[in-house]
Amino acid sequence: MAATTHSHPTPEPWRAPLARGPLRGDVSLPGSKSLTNRELVLAALADGPSTIRLPLHSRDSALMLAGLRQLGVGIDEVAPADGAAPNPYGPDLRITPAAMHGGVRLDCGLAGTVMRFLPPLAALATGPVTVDGDPYARKRPMGAIIRALADLGVDVTDDGDGAMPFSFTGTGSVRGGALSIDASASSQFVSGLLLSAPRFDEGLHLTHVGERLPSLPHIEMTVAALRARGVRVDEPAIGEWVVHPGPIAARDTTIEPDLSNAAPFAVAALVAGGTVRIRTWPAETTQVGADLETLLPLWGATVVRDGDDLVVDGGVGIRGGASLPGVTLDLSRGGELAPALVALSALADEPSEVTGIGHLRGHETDRLAALAADLNRSGGAVHELDDGLRITPAPLHGSAWAAYDDHRMATAGAIVGLVVDGIAVDDIGSTAKTLPQFPELWAALVATSVPADGSVSR
Question: N or C: which end of the chain has fewer CB within 10 A?
Fold first, then answer.
């Protein structure tokens, strides 16, 4: 299958900046998209107001906020707590639950968390609800949520293709009880149901019946967020969850930096050489981006904790002539790291295979086809497997790089462009999905790569 471009490229392609020397990067990232949107849903269903500090402000979170406001949830911007530093990326949020109403059309954009988390919540509203999104979002798998709502007693109307748009009329309650789903296409199906389950009349006894369950850490994140708000969640077996009915406690919470968005910045140390410091890396987290701490050493990076920060040292890097090994890697835990790590593998000196990522065909774009297309257009040799990609290093050259409306495809192009002159990303604005400040943060990072001898990088 060939990846296809989508709706709104920027007027001029963004030429990825070359690294001129080893990096001395210092990066502070905004909040986690995954944590922000989970906490927004839980706060909307809680038994009192909650304050979310240092939330992400991006297209994905804006779509979630807009949907909650349409349903009647109160959302106000608030000043930082006394003595707290302001969030440089946007205001804190005060979420006030309210009786939810229908009569709305929810725009999910391309946001998987919005399209999978909002429908179970909106089923608790009273009145008609339509769920839709961007044109390409109508190709993303939604059948598991549609069937789950129907099995829980919600009267759902769709085109029979397991995709958006679809509609239902909420009655103010959802029965809940025992439910089986196939979440092989996305762990977000499980998380979306679990988040609203405490408000179902009978709670939820959810069982996954598919052959595989990708991105399990994201479900662990959901369970941890529920438990932090006093919800009882039992896990009788792998792929089985019991959420007991009851209140969701109001709770003020601070969002961690997005560790998956840290991937291109951390990988840059191995490509350009030098060091990249990621500020306020959490000591303990449910974010899958934390796996970078153990993954990057596979390519030869030195990764250390320094106080509250994570420091990645790439030595001289590919720019300085380092020879990076190939890897055989199962990324089923965290497929969202794949675009950055595949881009790195394409710059290594030995072949690599990255598997466990077949479900990425149903993300913002078909990421396997898109990565193969972009890298091969640049002179690479990338082949699709049933469940991943085989990357055979080859000399790369400058070329057009399609983002496919996908933030992680755009940042993969930036990684390659550190050492390949002429990589032109057609839509760097697609990074606004989860990191609107990416172009500025990347430019600041590359600006630290000034060689002492004035030489020009390859």
Answer: N
Crossing angle for the helix pair 33-45 and 188-196, nearest 10 degrees? 30
Query: For the residues 443-449, what does the mean pLDDT come to?
Result: 97
Give the strands of the sheet with 381-385, arranged side by side: 328-330, 352-355, 388-392, 381-385
The full length of the chain comes to 458
pTM for the model stands at: 0.92
Residue 5: which pLDDT band, with cuts at 50, 70 and 90?
Answer: very low
pLDDT digits over 317-330, tens only? 999 999 999 999 99
Catalytic positions, please? 336
Q: Would you state the structure tokens that stand for residue 183, as one six-digit string?
A: 């979440």
Name the amino acid, one letter, at 193.
L
Alpha carbon distance 430, 55 (integer Å):
19
134-188: pLDDT as tens digits? 998 999 999 999 999 999 999 999 988 899 999 999 999 999 999 999 999 899 9
**Considering only CA atoms, which of 396, 387, 397 is closest in space to residue 367?**
387
Domains and CATH numbers, the chain: 14-30+259-446 (3.65.10.10), 33-248 (3.65.10.10)
Angle (CA) 27-32-36 rounded to 5° is 145
Scanning the structure block, which residue is given the tokens 């025992």?
A: 178
DSSP state of 429: G
Which residues, other chains included, contact 104 with Cβ-Cβ below 8 Å and sequence gap of 6+?
67, 70, 71, 122, 127, 128, 129, 130
